[in-house]
Design goal:
- InterPro entries: LysM, LysM_dom_sf, NFP_LYK_LysM1, NFP_LysM2, Plant_RLK_LysM.
- The protein is an alpha+beta fold.
- 42% of the residues lie in helices and 19% in strands.
- The chain has a domain at 31-174 and 185-191.
- It is built from nine helices and seven strands.
- The structure holds 2-acetamido-2-deoxy-beta-D-glucopyranose (5 copies).
- The site of one 2-acetamido-2-deoxy-beta-D-glucopyranose has 4 residues, from α7.
C-alpha cells in the first residue's frame, strides 16, 4: 500500500518536472525576439500612437527631412516631441529624437500575431534587409522580421525601387498598464555603452519598471519598451558625444545567453532522467514486495 502511493507520487513528480522543464526550455528559446514581438493577449488597445527613440546619424540621417521620410511622417511631427525649435537646421551626430509611429497588431497566420509599425521602404542601391534594419532603422527591426512580413521575396535579389514593409518593433500598453498611467511604451534600442538603469534615468522612471515590461535578459542592440506616462523632455546636446559600437560585448552576451539556455535544458534533462530512474526503481520495489 505504502509503496503504491510512493510510486504514484513518483510518477506525479516525474510528469510535473517533465512538463515544467519542457515549458521552461521552450520559454528560454523564445526569449530574445528576432522575428518580432507577439501582441498582448488582450488586443483592445491596438492600434495606438507611440514613439521610437532615434539617434540622428551620418551620413544619411543628419536632417529631420530624411528621418521623417524614413518613418513616413512630417518633420514637425518629430521636432515637436523632440524639443527642436528650428526643424530645418541640420542635426548633429547622435542627437536624440522621438519619432511618432502607429503601432498595430498584425496577423501573420491564425496562431501568430506580431506587433509592429508597418513602414514602407523603397530599396536604394546597395541596400539589403540587414543594412536597412541595422543602419537606417538602427535595429528597431531585424532582417529576420523583415523576411517574415515580406513572405515570398528572395532577400538576396532586391531591385532598386522595390518597396518592402519594414516592421519597426512597438507595443501598445494594455488595459492594466493604462490604468497604471503607462500611456506609451517607447521603442528604444539599448546601446553597448548603456544599461537599464541609465535608460531608466534618461526617461525619469525606475529601472524595475523597465524590467517588469522587458525582463532582465536584454542585450546591446535589442529593442526594449520603456513604459512612461508622458515623453521626457529631451535636452538637445550642444556637442556630439560618440559611442563606438562594440561587437565584442554583443557576442559575449549571445554566448552567455546560449550557455545559460543550454545549462537550464541540461539540468532539466538530468532531473527528468533521475525522476525516470526513480519510477523504475519504485516499480521494481512493488514487484519484489508483492511477490
Ligand atoms: C480585454 O479587456 C476588456 C476591457 O478591459 C475586458 O472587458 C475583456 O474581458 C478583456 N478580454 C480578455 C480576453 O481578457
Ligand atoms: C502595410 O501597409 C501597406 C500599405 O501601406 C499595406 O498594403 C499592407 O497590407 C500593410 N501590411 C500589414 C501587414 O499590415
Ligand atoms: C545594429 O546592431 C548591429 C549588431 O547586431 C551593430 O553592428 C550595429 O552597429 C547596430 N546599428 C546601430 C545603428 O547601432
Ligand atoms: C550603468 O551605466 C552608467 C553610465 O552609463 C554607470 O554609471 C553605472 O555604473 C552603470 N550601472 C550598472 C549597474 O552597471
Ligand atoms: C530644450 O532644449 C534646450 C537646449 O537646446 C534646453 O535648454 C531646454 O531646457 C529644453 N527644453 C525642454 C522643455 O526640455
Amino acid at each position: 500500500m505504502r509503496n503504491k502511493s510512493q510510486c504514484l507520487s513518483f510518477s506525479f513528480l516525474f510528469f510535473f518536472f517533465f512538463f515544467f522543464f519542457l515549458f521552461s526550455c521552450h520559454q528560454s528559446q523564445a526569449q530574445p525576439s528576432t522575428t518580432g514581438y507577439t501582441c498582448s493577449a488582450n488586443q483592445t488597445t491596438y492600434p495606438c500612437r507611440t514613439y521610437a527613440f532615434y539617434r540622428a546619424s551620418a551620413p544619411d540621417f543628419l536632417d529631420l527631412a530624411s528621418i521623417a521620410d524614413l518613418f513616413s511622417v512630417s518633420g514637425r511631427m518629430i521636432s515637436e516631441p523632440s524639443n527642436i525649435s528650428s526643424p530645418s537646421s541640420p542635426l548633429i551626430q547622435n542627437q536624440p529624437l522621438f519619432v511618432p509611429i502607429t503601432c498595430s497588431c498584425n496577423t501573420l497566420n491564425p496562431s501568430h500575431t506580431i506587433s509592429f509599425a508597418n513602414l514602407s521602404y523603397t530599396i536604394k542601391s546597395g541596400d539589403t534587409f540587414y543594412s536597412v534594419s541595422t543602419n537606417n532603422y538602427q535595429n528597431l527591426t531585424t532582417y529576420q522580421s523583415v523576411e517574415v512580413v515580406n513572405p515570398g521575396f528572395v532577400p538576396t535579389k532586391l531591385e532598386v525601387g522595390d518597396v518592402f514593409i519594414f516592421p519597426v518593433f512597438c507595443k501598445c500598453p494594455d488595459q492594466t498598464q493604462l490604468r497604471n498611467r503607462v500611456n506609451y511604451l517607447v521603442s528604444y534600442v539599448l546601446q553597448p555603452s548603456e544599461n537599464l538603469s541609465s535608460v531608466a534615468s534618461r526617461f525619469g522612471i525606475e529601472t524595475q519598471a523597465i524590467i517588469d515590461v522587458n525582463g532582465n535578459n536584454i542585450r546591446p542592440f535589442d529593442t526594449l519598451f520603456v513604459p512612461v506616462a508622458r515623453l521626457p523632455e529631451l535636452k538637445q546636446p550642444a556637442v556630439a558625444p560618440s559611442a563606438p559600437p562594440s561587437r565584442k560585448t554583443e557576442r559575449k552576451g549571445v554566448i552567455t545567453g546560449l550557455s545559460i539556455g543550454l545549462g537550464i535544458c541540461g539540468a532539466s534533462l538530468v532531473l527528468v532522467l533521475v525522476a525516470g530512474v526513480g519510477i523504475i526503481c519504485s516499480f521494481k520495489h512493488i514487484n519484489l514486495f508483492s511477490d
